[in-house]
Amino acid sequence: MDKLVIEGGVSLRGDVRVGTAKNSVLPILAATLLTREPCRIVDAPRLRDVGTMLRILPALGVECERDADGSIATRVVDERACEAPYELVKTMRASVCVLGPLVGRRRRARVSFPGGCVFGPRPIDLHLKGLRALGVELDIEAGYIVARAENLRGASMYLGGAFGPTVTGTANVLMAAVLADGVTHIHMAACEPEIQDLARFLVAMGADVRGIGTPVLEIHGVAELHGATYRPVPDRIEAGTFLVAAAITGGNVTVRDCRPEDLLAVIERLEAVGCGIETGADWVRCARRGRLRAADITTLPYPGFPTDLQAQFMALLTLADGVSVVTEKIYPERFMHVAELARMRARIRREQHLAIVEGTEYLSGAPVLASDLRASAALVLAGLVAEGETQVRRVYHIDRGYERIEEKLAHLGARIRREEDEEGA
Ligand code: EPZ
Description:
It is a single chain. α4 (99-105) runs parallel beside α6 and α10 runs parallel beside α12 (373-385). The protein folds into two domains: 2-19 and 234-420, Alpha-beta prism (UDP-n-acetylglucosamine1-carboxyvinyl-transferase, Chain), CATH 3.65.10; 22-230, Enolpyruvate transferase domain (UDP-n-acetylglucosamine1-carboxyvinyl-transferase, Chain, Alpha-beta prism), CATH 3.65.10. By secondary structure, the protein is α/β, with parallel strands linked by helices. It is built from 14 helices and 24 strands. The strands form six sheets. A four-stranded mixed sheet has the order 22-23-1-24, with helices on one face. Strands 2-15-17-16 form a four-stranded mixed sheet.
């Protein structure tokens, strides 16, 4: 197991390029189950989670090949297999995205129930509700979701839950509905850029999806889909993480190959804490000279502030003058980073789904333990500015969603290296 060792105190400067979005690539790869024709996903990032999907798809009869240029070629060679096994699904919740396309195309699926995760319960009741509305019979047997559908027929459904829309739930129902008879309306559909991206990939495959990017998706079922070549959107969470890296270190970083329009809520909050932001068609520059000011953040479904940047932004707020309130409205328990940031001298008090962050003069480097992907990124950011050395352990979490993060940060001047962690977990 590896750890990242960071010597804090360098203001980051320069340009960094972000890859394509993990949370687009995963459902898009799952969508390749919907056709027997070859598909090509261009510039797919080399991430642990993508690797997991590339192990699940062959178990479902899909040949997958990674080309030297980074694209992934897929082709379905056997449509009999329908089981996504526990051993693979348990390592990545997004594996549940194969449920919709399996039932859409093969009319049956056996997918391990994904269960909870370190940041609390992660139900899939809305996925199941939407699939049932399309005529899918569903049951839970031995820890598996067992799905069968004689006929799939379009339906109108409301997919909102207590915390708003569901991202992968919308993806699953959308992928089943494209091959259903008739018209489907998904009300309260997720509008995240990654869902828009999946919908565009399906359109490139011959699907008829209208209302993309709005809370009402209208899907006219078609009989067959064909292969497609597609480049997913840039990763807005990776981009946001580098912008926060610039802000926390008092640096000046230009994030290239990104989409500023997907980052509006983040840009607005970076300005609120005192950063200067410039944007171009496909880049965002973040610079900070003065002190950081406290600011509140509230996570919300897109286009609100993303929960996937809450931890990183909290690391930033630990050094702001004044008191900031972080309100987590998507995952009320997504605060594992709080205790580890406290080990670095941050002053944070948790009250249910709120964290109250009182700015401190400086952070102090420490050995810390990463508990999930975005929490790990927050600890790395804190380490970049902390006095002395920070060791972020269990970095396999970070490798799930950031490609070569230490190389990209080192290129911006950070003193960071990856080492084997002899103490293991
Ligand atoms: C997606 O997870 C992302 N994962 C997550 O990214 C992200 O944090 C999350 O959306 C929110 O933006 C992928 O895209 C692969 P949800 P997902 O269903 O789809 C509740 C990362 O770090 N809910 O939109 O699983 C749920 O509990 C990650 O890259 C139900 O109640 O999230 C939550 O409160 C982690 N019933 C809210 O909805 C359901 O059936 C939103 O969850 C489904 C969800």
